[in-house]
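Example with several molecule types.
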Amino acid sequence: MRRLRQAPWVRGLVAENTLTPADLVWAVFVHDGEGRVPVGSLPGIDRLSVEEAAKAAKRAESLGIPAIALFPYIGPEGKDEEGTGAVDPDGLVPRAVRAMKAAAPGVGLITDVALDAYTSHGHDGLLDPDGTIPNDATVERLVQQALAHAKAGADVVAPSDMMDGRIAAIREAFDEEGFTNMMILAYAAKYASGFYGPYRDAIGSAQSLSGDKKTYQQDPANSDEALREVALDLAEGADMVMVKPGLPYLDIVQRVSSTFGVPTLAYQVSGEYAQIMAAAQNGWIDGDRVIMESLMCFKRAGASGIITYFAEKAAETLGA
Ligand code: PBG
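Resulting structure tokens for the full complex:
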């Protein structure tokens, strides 16, 4: 076996998988203030103003990164019980989408559909007085949010809320309103995970989250259930599906991509980023090497693309 490993040229020739900037979706946080504000739990990651986000879109274009996934930081003053900010046609996300599209029309924009950034309780849905998250009332609100993003010029909506039936409802509303080309990337298999910790800090929902999300996100013990989720989302009109978190769930990525043969994205989430960065900063691992290795592992498992906070850095490395 070692004959084929003796030099870079032959290793490259026989490599079964490749990683290019075209595989990456850059996860970007936006905020309503000025300039860039660092996120403490994500070293090297800033929340960007709308203006900075437009620059990031241009940067993506020059690096060959095909798309950006946008996540808003909404301060306490912008949150309420019902997450009304989520459906505002002039809210932060619609404004960022318009500015980014104007700056770099060829870069795909993917928006997050869920209420957590906008609710005072930090849940992805509405919250009933008895502590339950009502499914259908939440779906109605998510449809309004998705329409606001479509009207602003987003290319893809990515419902990350894990309510039942939301893909069908969003698809129907898009068709009714003439958004027949809108793509839906369903967070089909999204697990109730501790790896989202730094993200909740980044979008300002960490302090406020009451309870956990286990009544709507999947149990990490389950794998067959992920296939049922994906089958439903595809039947309801999803164009692409996502598995989340990433590396600890590569078995799910592989099962989904081999079972369905549909575009399957994986999300290297905030806690995965933070782990790599923390160990690298301590000198315990070679960060640059581990970043590229982790991204290649997604490809090997069958992911068609990877949503990652490392996209800019990885694309720089790949282009160098
Ligand atoms: C929720 C959402 C979450 C992430 C993306 N969309 C967090 C959650 O479900 O609590 C997490 C992403 C990450 O950790 O990087 N709408």
